[in-house]
Fold this protein.
Amino acid sequence: MKISSGLLLFCISLSLFLTGNKSRAQVPALQEFPIPSRLQMEWQKLEQIAFIHFSINTFTDMEWGFGNESPELFNPTQLDCRQWVKICKDAGMKGVILTAKHHDGFCLWPSAYTEHCVKNSVWKEGKGDVVREFSEACKEYGLKMGLYLSPWDCNHPDYGKPEYNQYFKNQLTELLTHYGEVFEIWFDGANGGRGYYGTDSLHNRTIPADYYDWQGFVDIVRKLQPNCVIHGGAMPDIRWVGNEEGYAGETHWSTMMSQEILAAEKNRQAQLNSGYENGTRWLPSETDVSVRPGWYYHAAEDHKVKTVEQLMDIYYESVGRNSLLLLNLSPDKQGRIFPLDSARLMEWKQQLDLDLGKNLLDDYCTYYSQNSRSVDFAFDKFFDTYWESFKNYGYLEIDFGIETTCNRLLLQEHIPEGQKVKAFHADYLENGEWKTLVKGTTIGYKRILRFIPVKTRKIRIVIDDALAPPQISTVAVFNAPLLPATPEIRRNQSGEIVILSSDKIGEIFYTTDGSDPDRNSKIYDHPFVSDGPVTVKAAAYQGPDARSETAVEKFGVSKAGWKVVGDSRTDPALFDGNPATTWFSPKGEPGVTVDLVRPMMIQGVNFLPDQSRFFSGIPLNYRISVSMKGKKWKQVVSGEFSNIRNHPVLQTIPFDKPVETRFLKFESTSVAEGKNILGIGELEIAIEK
Ligand code: FUL
């Protein structure tokens, strides 16, 4: 409903007068609340969709191509888009987005506007069309189809010149005309500058902020696909969540400021992650994250496919925090999703069903609130009916009828009329007394809270503060099977032991005497020092019984004082106990010499290569030598690492018999990709006691 500006001013002044609260001056008047468009609302209800990154990068083992790759490299031997889409469907996805063109400019469809596409590939003798096969698979399985079209194009000669905008529009028109309904189009924001740009040399071409004709692109989408939302670009419909790790902020508004204000923000990514309480536009977020570290398939990441615990965490921190989850799969060189990835997705779906498949609120429950007229609407099965408070706060009470155990609370605001809740908490009744169960800030389209199980007869949801009378359309309660994540134990060179856990609600117990930890063991609440040989065991507990697997780390003698010869840094990354940090040798010297300060009996070496996403300095072979004074060296062992380039996991190198030494040298004469440096995640030296 539109109202005149005079009346609006009167309403704002009246509300200020009534509330007497100055901060309310920034709160939009009720009629002004940004609300989702029909398209945004339909999109939000999809909740979880999939991404597919598949292109020339799959064949060159890269994440960002240069644009000079030969189209002939694209040659999937068993391309099967039906397999991709079926896996997505079975995993509960409602739509799938395919990278039709990534930054390198190679097109998965036979574009009439470039030669840099499938028509010049070996695959199907240049007669194939991946976008066509993908669109047909989506139709067959009833999933919505989305397409990713990278504005940055490292191949096109016009890139960086105004003419490129027309090329982009031609491609957009092709994609939006020939393949049926498209529900989402992805304009990626990346621009690394580098590229081939159709010339014979690689050079940089970054572009000014106003280079692309965003409005022209939007007009084409609106005209050709009126039901399509647009990600990125000038952000007309949906926004990026601000990270690629898979989490939305705990406080998460679907409202944002205008582009101008956003562009001026210093901490833009944090703002995208939380949104703005007083935002003036409805711009919900999309959380894009890959099942693997990279977006494209790399055999070297086969051991890094996310665990079910990690995927569950991502779900609760995206969908469960008012965002939409866009989960990426990476088909391999054959053109199929790798068996491990699909199996993991199925386990994840199974776990999701176990967690949230059975709402405990049934016909035996009764509900109360101060507005009892509409209370039942929060508990029916319909999103469009809702409970509304009279004030900017209020409560809803659930009586289960019998003592009931639960550990998940799901809430939905009726966002077609705007997002309003700023703060809420839930209480449970124990021995006639209300106790706090969990606290939260925003709710939005969907909020799911996890907590340690409680057995109670009553729960009460209290909206503590809201921008306007809150409207709650869904409340659901679940008792998810407990799934405590196995902790990780690390020790640095100073002997400080840290126990890490991705578990957000569990407690960690540990031992240092070799016994298995239980709830009577020491509780871990801060790092502790235990230098010298020690076995640390740790387990996470959720509630009294649910226990994770036991994490075990056996630490050897103290590394205190150990030095890397020629490197003065203390706690160098190869001894810091943290696999995520890497020590690199100087260029041209792929090796490391370690001074153990005093002679020790060495039984072998464990070598962990660089674990970072864009790893380098991976040795294909090794030679280990020892020396008492660091002058005369004796080789103890040499050999090749098998498959280390594709599978860069911990490599164990035992010695035939223990050797006494003070200095130890680890070298490689052949490093992957012909590099002349060595990257070491961790170097463990097994010492005889
Ligand atoms: C990023 C791109 O640069 C990545 O390659 C990937 O496509 C991801 C989804 O977006 O910004």
Q: What stands out?
A: Residues 63, 188, 190, 288, 295 surround beta-L-fucopyranose (CB under 6 Å).
